[in-house]
Amino acid sequence: MTRILIVTGDPVGDRMAGPAIRAWNIALELQRHGHEVRLVSTTRADRADTGVPLSHVAPGDEAGIRVHERWADVVFFQGHALGQFRTLASTDRYLVADVYDPMHLEMLEQGRELPAATWNLRVAGARDALNDQLRRADYLLCASERQRLFYLGHLASLGRISPVTYDGDGDLRRLIDLAPFGLSTTPPAPGDGLRGRIAGIDADDRVLIWGGGVYSWFDPLTLIRAVAAVRERVPGVRLVFLGTKHPGVDEMGIVREAYDLAVELGVDGREVVFNDTWVPYDERGAYLVDADAGVSTHHRHIETTFAFRTRILDYLWAGLPMVVTDGDGFADLVRDENLGVVVPPNDEEALADAITRVLAVDSDEVAVWRENVARVREQFTWPEVLAPLVAYCAEPWHAPDYTPGRSGMGAGASRTRRSAGLGHDLRMAAHHLKHSGARDVAARIRRRLRRSS
Predict the structure, then answer these.
(1) What is the CATH number of the domain that holds 59?
(2) How many domains does the chain have?
(3) What's the domain range around 333?
(4) Res. 414: pLDDT tops 60
(5) pLDDT average, residue stretch 248-271
(6) Does the structure show a pLDDT above 90 at 301?
(7) Is Oxidoreductase tagged as a keyword (predicted)?
(8) Cα(444)–Cα(441) distance, rounded to whole angstroms?
(9) What is this structure's pTM?
(10) Backbone dihedral region of 346: left (phi > 0), alpha (psi from -120 to 50 degrees) or beta?
């Protein structure tokens, strides 16, 4: 039995987004294998039906995190934890970094609406945090082979690929391996879902579901135009955006653009429905199985190339055929396994044709897609995808280039950029005052106080 500390930066509660859902299910799977597990959130921890010891430790609370770190044999972390806690950056415990989200690439898109200096700062902060994880971790887990090749380049540039780490591990799987996002072994059960619960959706409507948040790296606008174009061809077509209020991310401008376009085209509240809350984690299955197909559309850029769209797993879980934009790893899966339709980016006509096909009634093509989805989803259950982590926790190891304090791992500078504490807060306040003004600083303070209340 191993004692494992899991640290996430996302809220762990009734409404959870990807990182918290992943941390939660990792905790449950490791418990199932007989390990002792503690789950710590640096933002909020108030999930009611917890079967896992759950705590909140604020960023910079070294005494608070040290209690858990000293208890643990293995520390598994996501996000900015090393910059928030010196205790974790220098731990002598076995250290596992969860790098399933290339956050610096995500920030290239997420920060577009910010002042240029703040955008640069956010991307640099994400890059430095990721480099610190890659430099200091004993073991790293990513979501796909695409990502793994990408990270191997990172690791080589940081000096982590060397004779010391290569000797006896020619494919470097003991340094970085795969643990994609997963899904439950039990398919979702029908319940009180979309129909009759969200205004504008009736029992006979043909529902296309957007199963997650609306962010700037996605392309909801071409999708809305395509839905407007097929409303005569597909009677009762309904595009449902399942959640526009992410529990841990401020609303992006693309949400307002999507609303405005739906109003302009005369489809808001009719063919296009926005659910302006975030569906509780334990209820999302009933919403998904109430749909007829899933959809995910995005632009062509570097974030797409290395992304792992967790909403696609929800479609697999619910047995839904899907329409997806080409360019990411899941598009390859949908195409290779015949799970639905892959369309070019920003192609309204191709998207309209694909929607017509996946929402067809009594279609042999749709029946084949559903059969294939049911087969493929077994490859992505949590027990399957977490097998490498389970094996590591059973017999953990330090990386061959491990040094006490971890500052000597890899090559070059290894100073951890602090992302918590008074000094960090003062630097950020000065930055935003200079580049965004006093009103923006006051708004940020109010949001911080709301989150901590």
Answers:
(1) 3.40.50.2000
(2) 2
(3) 206-369
(4) no
(5) 87
(6) no
(7) no
(8) 5
(9) 0.84
(10) left
